[in-house]
Specification:
single chain, 409 residues, alpha/beta, Aspartate Aminotransferase, domain 1, Aspartate Aminotransferase, domain 2, 2 domains, 7-stranded mixed sheet, 4-stranded mixed sheet, 35% helix
């Protein structure tokens, strides 16, 4: 049998591509029926040439904008040199990445991985081993406190401690060792602590839950609670970190330095899966050769792209832009005074618009916005998430608000 695959992209219309995906792809997502083929800055284009403002940024992975020229150049140059060595050997890009991200974030050590879920799994393993070897928790009895509404990934261990039943149904049995406490309730966290608690794992702002903000001072109180009880404070900043909220990390708003910060998504500007666990030498030092790893983690292509993505965030002031223009965007949404809007919340350019009972589902609003050239996505049924690339300008926001106002009016 002589079979060949056609690598060219056929000239099909939007619906034909949708039909192909519906026929051949597993339906583990419910995307809007727009088929994209090109991106530039804050804009994306579908296969029929229609232009859209991207207000999702691939769930905050494209903070630097689509196909940022500096990242394109870096990726091309590195692809022509060296892409993968595995960690059986060292590579120059890994060494430089580790130095530069530690200097930027003021952490002592970093362990690079690929996906965000891998970085969360890394943090869980590190916290457990730290609990056994440093805190003296009996072997195989370590507990990690997590919170209602959490979203840290899709692996079997991670969904084991989700409070969302849809993420768990028919995927058991589940990994033990996690205690669920109410998000935003410091008393619930206190009650969850035992002498076997190794760490807490928290999102400083819950993204998938609908841009849920904890009470002011809660993160600091939780951090202090951890210090009082010799517990690791682990912050999942995969969505909120690297400028999205108008600070390098969302935890910076409460002037705390987590023992562990987990990053991903925007770490590579949407070019390549790169994630990392950041911590100190005592915690990351628990890993010995052979105890944890990844074939692709720390590869030269990913590291080169990640290095440039961090430089872009700093040198192009994208963090400050997210703070100023996020505030402007939220003010515009509030001033719209729509009868369908229950609440506008968020920080920086991570914004949630919760709709009231009259509006019912957020899905039709997102579909109407798509027709007007704005791409966003509903979360938790009645919430619209606005998270454009951090390069967006006030003029872009003004133009978008005219269309958003039409839909939400």
């Amino acid at each position: 049998m002589n079979q060949q695959l056609n690598s060219s992209t056929p000239k099909l219309n939007n619906q034909q591509f949708v039909d192909l995906e519906n026929k051949y792809a597993a339906r583990n997502y419910h995307p809007l029926d727009v088929v994209l083929e090109k991106g530039e800055g804050i804009w994306v284009y579908d296969v029929e040439g229609n232009k859209y403002l991207d207000c999702l940024s691939a769930y905050s992975a494209v903070n630097q904008g689509h196909c940022h020229p500096r990242l394109v150049k870096t990726a091309k140059e590195q692809i022509e040199k060296l892409t993968l060595t595995s960690r059986a050997f060292r590579n120059n890009q890994l060494s430089l990445f580790c130095k530069e991200i530690c200097e930027l974030t003021k952490y002592e050590m970093v362990l690079p991985m690929n996906s965000g879920a891998e970085a969360v799994e890394t943090a869980i393993k590190a916290a457990r081993k730290w609990g056994y070897t440093k805190k003296g928790i009996p072997e195989n009895e370590a507990e990690i406190i997590v919170f209602t509404g959490n979203f840290h990934g899709r692996t079997t261990t991670i969904i084991s401690f989700s409070s969302e039943e849809d993420y768990k149904t028919h995927f058991g049995p589940f990994t033990p060792g996690f205690t669920l406490a109410e998000y935003g309730n410091i008393e619930a966290a206190k009650q969850a602590i035992t002498d076997k608690t190794a760490a807490i794992l928290i999102e400083p702002i819950q993204g998938e839950a609908g841009i849920i903000m904890p009470p002011q001072g809660y993160l600091e109180d939780l951090y202090n609670l951890c210090k009082e009880n010799n517990i690791l404070f682990m912050s999942d900043e995969i969505q909120t970190g690297l400028g999205r909220t108008g600070r390098l990390f969302a935890s910076d708003y409460e002037n705390i330095k987590p023992d562990v910060t987990i990053v991903g998504k925007a770490l590579s500007g949407g070019f390549y899966p790169v994630s990392a666990m950041l911590s100190n030498a005592e915690i990351l030092g628990v890993f010995q050769p052979g105890q944890h790893g990844s074939t692709f983690g720390g590869n030269p292509l990913g590291m080169a792209v990640a290095r440039e993505s961090l430089k872009i965030l700093v040198e192009e002031n994208l963090i400050g832009n997210a703070y100023e223009n996020g505030k402007y965007f939220r003010e515009k949404l509030v001033a719209m005074n729509s009868r369908f809007v229950k609440e506008v919340r968020g920080r920086g350019l991570l914004i949630g618009v919760e709709l009231n009972e009259e509006a019912k589902s957020a899905r039709p609003f997102c579909e109407k916005l798509q027709q007007l050239g704005i791409l966003c996505k509903e979360t938790h049924y009645n919430i619209i998430r606005f998270a454009p690339p951090l390069i967006i300008t006030k003029e872009d926001i003004d133009a978008a608000m005219e269309k958003i106002a039409k839909v939400l009016a």
